[in-house]
Amino acid sequence: DSGVTQTPKHLITATGQRVTLRCSPRSGDLSVYWYQQSLDQGLQFLIQYYNGEERAKGNILERFSAQQFPDLHSELNLSSLELGDSALYFCASSVAAGSNYGYTFGSGTRLTVV
Amino acid sequence: AQSVSQHNHHVILSEAASLELGCNYSYGGTVNLFWYVQYPGQHLQLLLKYFSGDPLVKGIKGFEAEFIKSKFSFNLRKPSVQWSDTAEYFCAVKGAYEGGKLIFGQGTELSVKP
Q1: Quick check: B60 and B50 in contact, CB under 8 A?
Q2: Whose CA is closest to A29, among A106, A94, A102?
Q3: In A, which residues are within 8 Å of B99 by CB distance?
């Protein structure tokens, strides 16, 4: 157990639907990062939050959005789902925004869009 | 733009063979460098990291990596692999003075035959 908790572990949904992925960072970590891992794109950075505020944005589609709540957990919302959104979505956390400590990853949510 | 290139997509070795996985990055400034390992069905785990100082970095499980600034490289090595090293290995880079997002390479799948 890495200390970063992601739920659910698996999610199967239909095209056009909307889902919410949840991440609880490791205790004491203020920064949360979302990554998408797919066979063709590899690990792609989506978005980073630090203490409730968006800090950096990567290759995140407009259909996707995220937020970090006062208790520091984060949610990634994926809407109008397409088959190509099927992937493993990882959350990572770190102590600070530009952390030099490395990042602790969660076990991921495997999303399958059918 | 920052990028990371891992030369080998799939490496197959026999137990006790030596391992070297190549990683080159593209970035104009000071960098932090990381190697992560992902065992089948598990989250990414940090193997080792380089921030500054001795360019030869030792990590967990007998792995080490050497930062060669002139070659923009951070190759991962292990003198003698074991079957349990079968996993996917990711090189990642972050600008040392930037926000926290990691840029990952495409990954190298290592298969070790007993």
Answers
A1: no
A2: A94
A3: 48, 55-56, 97-98
